[in-house]
């Protein structure tokens, strides 16, 4: 009996050892195979052009090339012309000359013509902004954004640049709107406008005129309308918001023609607004929570985990949500009860404690485009708090204004939006960011010259062509973090990284791997990663490829891959900052 038991144990141990050897061998073979695939792609890159000195051409002996020519007279007689029509005429035709007048008409200096000349000059209207177009030049060289914003022909306009998403210039004129139970007054919009003018290239201001109810067609020109809950404008406490049939018709036209609504308030207010939007847009629209992979979280600043106050991890996927169900949250009732207790009893608990978390951003999609956002984050109140100069901790206010900037930039840059996207002036070249070269200490040292250039870092999923199917988080040097929840791409490409040694931490599929890389200026360093699964064992592999190439040649070698490009032109301070001791 003891012998059989020992035999079974030995057999099991042998099986485990064979499986482990097979797994490790397969992993090593796959590593080598993946490295070989990337090496072949990078090896096919054509060599870079290197200038070389041209040797002078041999000197030609012009005297040796000269040829003496001699004219020889022919002895053959001239041949007569057989065709009589080809014979030239001997008598030319007489040319008639007009007879000049005996005396010229006397014309005094500055005299008028005999007949009037009718010619109408086309003058420009003083209120027109078509000066450049009238001269046949389709550019903005003779116009200023300040002049266009003042004329307000279009309530907003932007000039996008390819350098970075933050390199966006333009203007926006906010419109004050007041409806039943909601409105967009000067307070919060003035705070957002001031932040935009101080921290972006967008000229923002709030117009003085206020529109009562959504009944004017002038409201159709605004790329975005803010509807903040306003209990003072609701005369019936049982109804927090209400729209007339005319308002609903114009709102439906506004959203279908490229408009955008940002709606913020309490839970009950948002549930009523959801019912109105469902009635306005019908069954063709879709209502669901906005995932963190949506461009609204990445349009200007990076909010990989959502806006401040959001907890996207606890929100469940509601699918199509054809019933347009918005969750019931008693957060408002608890907050009102706490405020009443604080006003009555001095020993009441602090206001805000024990509240359920907010629901975050929910969105309404129409034809695949986000047309309305519902929020219970109360950003309006935080924006108003930016005017309080005595507050010591301004970090929550800053984050809320950054979130408002993302919302506005997304509304301006939507594909189906109404904001005109103007070409950059000719004196403003539209090019990708390049590092400013500094004169090296040793002019003959090529390595120091390349160290002044920016570097690229590519992370590609192996084997080539595999798609990212899990949440991906990348941390650089422990200071910069990027979380991507999007699916379907094959890799990442970081631009504008400082050359030198960096520590890369990659989290994918619940596994984490770290690696130190040395980036070289002007070249792309490629890191490959893959997730190996064997039985119940999961292992994340990451390795650096030896071959390097410049950005253009690397893009040509991996042109068939969908790569997410991340520009760090405005975030370099996170990597260049000196850590605290």
CATH superfamily descriptor of the domain at 142-413: Domain of unknown function DUF4159
Extended strand count:
18
Structural class: alpha/beta
Low-confidence stretches: 25-33, 47-51, 123-142, 433-447
Give the helices and strands, then pairings:
Blueprint: H1 2-43, H2 62-65, H3 131-134, H4 145-151, E1 156-159, E2 169-179, E3 182-184, H5 186-199, E4 201-212, E5 225-229, H6 245-256, E6 261-264, H7 267-281, E7 285-289, H8 331-344, E8 362-366, E9 369-375, H9 379-384, H10 395-413, H11 446-451, E10 455-461, E11 472-476, E12 480-484, E13 491-497, E14 500-508, E15 511-519, E16 524-534, E17 537-544, H12 551-557, E18 563-567, H13 572-576
Parallel strand pairs: 2-4, 5-6, 6-9, 10-16, 13-18
Antiparallel strand pairs: 1-2, 2-3, 3-5, 7-8, 8-9, 10-13, 11-12, 11-14, 14-15, 16-17
Helix pairs in contact: 6-7
Task: Give your account of this protein's structure.
The protein has 13 helices and 18 strands. It has 581 residues and is α/β, with parallel strands linked by helices. Among the domains are: 142-413, 3-Layer(aba) Sandwich (Rossmann fold), CATH 3.40.50; 446-576, Immunoglobulin-like (Sandwich). The strands form three sheets. Strands 1, 2, 3, 4, 5, 6, 7, 8 and 9 form a nine-stranded mixed sheet that branches. A five-stranded mixed sheet has the order 17-16-10-13-18, covered by helices on one side. The model is unreliable at 25-33, 47-51, 123-142 and 433-447 (pLDDT under 50).
């Amino acid at each position: 009996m003891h012998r059989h038991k020992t035999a079974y144990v030995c057999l099991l141990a042998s099986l485990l050892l064979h499986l482990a050897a097979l797994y490790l061998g397969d992993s090593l073979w796959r590593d080598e195979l993946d490295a070989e695939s990337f090496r072949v792609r990078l090896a096919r890159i054509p060599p870079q052009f290197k200038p070389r000195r041209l040797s002078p051409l041999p000197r030609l002996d012009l005297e040796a090339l000269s040829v003496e020519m001699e004219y020889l007279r022919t002895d053959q007689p001239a041949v007569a012309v057989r065709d009589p029509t080809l014979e030239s005429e001997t008598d030319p035709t007489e040319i008639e000359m007009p007879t000049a007048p005996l005396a010229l008409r006397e014309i005094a200096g500055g005299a008028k013509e005999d007949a009037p000349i009718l010619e109408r000059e086309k003058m420009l209207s003083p209120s027109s902004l078509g000066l450049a177009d009238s001269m046949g030049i389709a550019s903005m060289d003779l116009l200023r954004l300040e002049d266009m914003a003042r004329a307000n022909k279009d309530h907003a306009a932007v000039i996008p640049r390819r350098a970075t998403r933050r390199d966006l210039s333009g203007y926006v004129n906010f419109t004050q709107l007041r409806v039943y139970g909601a409105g967009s007054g000067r307070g919060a919009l003035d705070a957002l406008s001031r932040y935009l003018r101080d921290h972006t290239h967008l000229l923002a201001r709030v117009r003085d005129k206020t529109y009562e109810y959504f009944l004017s067609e002038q409201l159709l020109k605004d790329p975005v309308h803010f509807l903040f809950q306003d209990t003072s404008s609701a005369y019936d406490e049982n109804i927090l918001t209400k729209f007339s049939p005319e308002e609903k018709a114009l709102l439906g036209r506004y959203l279908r023609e490229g408009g955008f609504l940002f709606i913020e308030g309490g839970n009950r207010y948002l549930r009523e607004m959801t019912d109105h939007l469902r009635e306005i847009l019908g069954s063709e629209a879709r209502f669901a929570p906005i995932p963190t992979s949506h461009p609204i979280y990445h349009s200007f600043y990076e909010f990989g985990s959502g806006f401040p106050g959001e907890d996207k991890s606890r929100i469940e996927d509601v699918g199509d949500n054809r019933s347009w169900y918005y969750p019931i949250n008693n957060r408002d009732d608890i907050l009102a009860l706490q405020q009443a207790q604080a006003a009555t009893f001095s020993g009441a608990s602090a206001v805000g404690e024990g509240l359920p978390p907010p629901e975050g951003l929910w969105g309404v999609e129409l034809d695949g485009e986000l047309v309305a956002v519902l929020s219970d984050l109360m950003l309006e109140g935080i924006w108003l708090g930016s005017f309080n100069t005595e507050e010591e901790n301004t970090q929550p206010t800053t984050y809320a204004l950054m979130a408002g900037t993302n919302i506005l930039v997304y509304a301006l840059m939507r594909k189906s939006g109404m904001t005109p996207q103007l070409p950059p002036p000719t004196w403003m070249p539209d090019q990708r960011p390049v590092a400013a070269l500094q004169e090296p200490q040793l002019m003959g040292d090529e390595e120091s010259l390349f160290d002044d250039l920016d570097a690229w870092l590519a992370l590609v999923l192996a084997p080539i062509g595999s798609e990212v199917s899990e949440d991906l988080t990348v941390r650089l040097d422990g200071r910069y973090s990027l979380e991507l929840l999007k699916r379907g791409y094959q890799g990442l490409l970081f631009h504008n990284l400082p050359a030198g040694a960096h520590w890369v931490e990659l989290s994918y599929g619940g596994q984490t791997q770290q690696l130190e890389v040395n980036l070289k200026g002007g070249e792309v360093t490629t890191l490959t990663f893959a997730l190996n699964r064997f039985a119940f064992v999961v292992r994340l592999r990451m390795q650096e490829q030896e071959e390097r190439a410049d950005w253009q040649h690397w893009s040509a070698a991996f042109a068939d891959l969908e790569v997410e490009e991340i520009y760090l032109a405005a975030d370099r301070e996170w990597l260049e900052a000196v850590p605290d001791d």
